[in-house]
Amino acid sequence: MRLPARRLLPVTALTATSALLTGCFSGADSAAEGDGKRVRVAMMQPPRSGLSPLSDDAFKLSRWSTAETLVKLDADGDAEPALATKWQQSGRTWTFEIRDGVTFHDGSELDAAAVVRSLTTAATASPKPRILDGVELTVQAQDSDTVTVTTADEDPLVPQRLSSPQLSILAAKAYRGKTVNPVGAGTGPFELVSVNGTSSAALDRYDGYWGEQAKSPGIDVKFVPDGTARAAALRSGEADIVEAVPVSQAALLDEELVTEVPMPRTNTLYLNTSDGPFRDAGLRAAAREAIDAESIVEGVYEGRADVAEGLLGPALPWAAELRSDVKRTAAEKPDGRTITIGTFTDRAELPEVAATLQQQLQKAGFKVKLEIREYANIETDALAGEFDAFILSRATVLDSGDPAAYLYSDFASDGSFNISQLADAQVDAALKKAAGTGTGEARRKAVIAAEAAVLATDAAIPMLHERVIQGDATGVVGAAHDPRERQLVTADTYVK
């Protein structure tokens, strides 16, 4: 079936998903008369923790360009200067030089003490930000513009970790209460000036910004969980930027308003290698050969996904460039073997994927049972190896922007998310090498070698890489389309 032409984000671009606004935006231009239009944004998920940067709400702060980190990531996941201008490693300790001339939105100056305060608060929080799970980290000021970050074990990913929005650097005023309050406390080109619970937020351009001045006078955000309502706001002109347009609604929009952003998220069939029919590598190979991923992309995702070539998809453009053929086990005949596939209802497409896989595997000679529940009621059984196979939509880069942590958690013998129950010495060795290799080209090659080791076992069959659909109104210029969802409205974004 030939699909209509679509705007698909080039995978080398590092930009972020936008959000759509539904509801009334009256008064959106009032804060900057004669100085252009404010950007009206609709976000999919309301704040869960009062916009505390120690929670997933941190990603909203970074998408609005109001809170910044010491380091940012380029398209390949390598560290670049942000609030820190340079850094160097000496064993377990990293030294960071703090940028001069930066002020917080309350007028106070960025210095080493502010960095120590923010990072220490994060490192000692309970629970810790995800990026610091299993990481013991201490921060000290060497002088007014130099800090050292020391970890319990030597860690080549410290700069990448410090790029996480959950480790944003905020002014002292943010830490005066029991929770971290980011209002008026960031360093970005936009100042967060008000938050209306889980309904809306407003940001104004910060004229004292250390970098390029924002082209828009401000941002007006509304939180609109309903996908149909978000799409309707784009069609009606009530929203300038729309986050996560549902596939079912995308077809109703002008294709010129829609951009599909490759996400670092892979829909994968995990096979139980320790118990049941899939202990046999030949039967795992038979399952792999039976799966027609292209029909799943066309039938379930309406063509708005990418057929998987490996575990890492087009959101990591270097993966395809480094990947080579993998030697796999020959397939055996299923001979009517009964298998049970589990998945969950929380992601609407997964039950449909399961039904399609059931048909494909039965055609190949398996007998297939499905067990589908809410994720909260099925995760424990999946991790305990209660299913022969499990369908999961899995993020392949975590907060560091690096896939080595995902590969280790899912496929190492002692991995915390090893649904395949895989225990393979060659895989473990490849994963250990990847985790210990310094950042850059050498680490990327080690990661692809680890991916190849996993794929050779057929413990996991990657089927497709997901995209997120973003809506940008005709007058929007410079909206970010970021596979990592760290950026949305930047200093370059404005509405004509």
What does this structure look like?
This protein is α+β, with helices and mostly antiparallel strands and 496 residues long. The chain folds into three domains: 1-16 and 18-66 and 188-243 and 480-496, D-Maltodextrin-Binding Protein, domain 2 (3-Layer(aba) Sandwich), CATH 3.40.190; 67-175, Dipeptide-binding Protein, Domain 1 (Dipeptide-binding Protein, domain 1, Alpha-Beta Complex), CATH 3.90.76.10; 262-467, Roll (Dipeptide-binding Protein, domain 3), CATH 3.10.105. It is built from 13 helices and 20 strands. It has helices spanning 58-63, 112-123, 158-161, 227-236, 247-250, 281-290, 293-299, 317-322, 349-363, 379-383, 404-411, 425-436, 441-457, and strands at 7-8, 39-43, 71-73, 79-81, 84-90, 93-98, 137-143, 146-151, 190-196, 200-205, 218-223, 241-242, 258-271, 305-307, 338-344, 367-373, 389-395, 460-472, 476-477, 494-495. The strands form four sheets. Strands 1, 2, 9, 10, 11, 12, 13, 14, 15, 16, 17 and 18 form a twelve-stranded mixed β-sheet that branches. It has a four-stranded antiparallel β-sheet with strand order 5-6-8-7, with helices on one face. Strands 3-4 form a two-stranded antiparallel sheet. The two termini are 37 Å apart. Mean pLDDT is 90; it is low at 1-5 and 10-34.
